[in-house]
Amino acid sequence: MNKNILFFCAIALLTFTMQSQSCDYYWRDYNGMIPDDAFPGGKDKDGNDIYIGQIYVHCYGLCIGPIFPGRREVEFYCWGTNRVTNVIKILCTQRPDDLKWLTTNYSTFHLHTINKNLVIGGYDGKAEQVHNYYIGRIGYDGMVQIGTADSLTAQTVYFYFLHNNKEFYRIQTYESIHNPDLYNPVILDPSNVVIVNRCCFSIITSNHHIDINDNDVYIGQAYIHGHGLYVGQIIPGETEIAVPCYGVKKTNYLIKILCTKHKENFSWLKTNAATFQTDTIDRHAVIGGYDHVNNNGVLHVGRVMHQGMLKFGNIASYSVDTVWFYFPHKDKEQRSGSYQVLIYNKREP
């Protein structure tokens, strides 16, 4: 089984008032192996578990589809039929009994889910109005079908899925996944009340992860429409993140934060643009994003000190010869040839 315990935990809005609370669900990178803590979404015709995948699709967003054990490829519906083998995550939890399926339908979804902590499965980045995808399922053809509950409008939330190369859309009755015990309003100020998915914020930090004012800083991943997934810096109290992405792009939604319950398994490795590919031989460098412009490839998590401040950003490791590190500073994209890369040190159980 895949022992990689790294994950990006999706949150509705960045807030750092819940650091002591434990994780309830999270997304791990999927590479063809089912992690021990993967959450099963149902059974196939032979009684085998089917799992829930989150897939990045360029210019479309983060989509939802079924993961079958032993299959690297995921087939799913997202503005039509899609098949991919990379940039896939799998839904995981250490408390599967806390996640429940709620029966609902297209016209009453928003009423049925009042005060319920729905699991956000992805985002529609192609529609004129970017919005959440929620995880849905139905029983069809003797097995569970995993797909998308599309929350584009307040009046109708239809369910969509793909089965045997056939697209099924605008399904009216289905189930959606939620945690009934996690309705937690968090008051940021008297005029702003938000609901936050409870996540693990005991992330990869040390006394070196501070800014010039001795404030903690965190590692974030942001979806930038038309470009991909990029690494940036999360500052407590700020809801916007800046990422290096062909210049500096800023966003205050579609953000994830890097989490782990075993920070002792991680370390930072000094490297540079000329020796990155050899320095990381037989090492597990942490993937932080994906540059889809010209289908460049994966980006690793890096950091550097710049003008007295710690900066997180993208290592453009898709380059074979010269691997630069990019980070934002004062609204400009900066480049460095010397930096540190985040390494996951695999440990035997």
Automatic annotation (TrEMBL):
Keyword Cell membrane found: no
Tree of life domain: Eukaryota
InterPro entries given in the database record: DM9_repeat
Signal peptide, first to last residue: 1-22
Keywords noted in UniProt: Signal
Keyword Ion transport in annotation: no
Name this polypeptide is given: DUF3421 domain containing protein
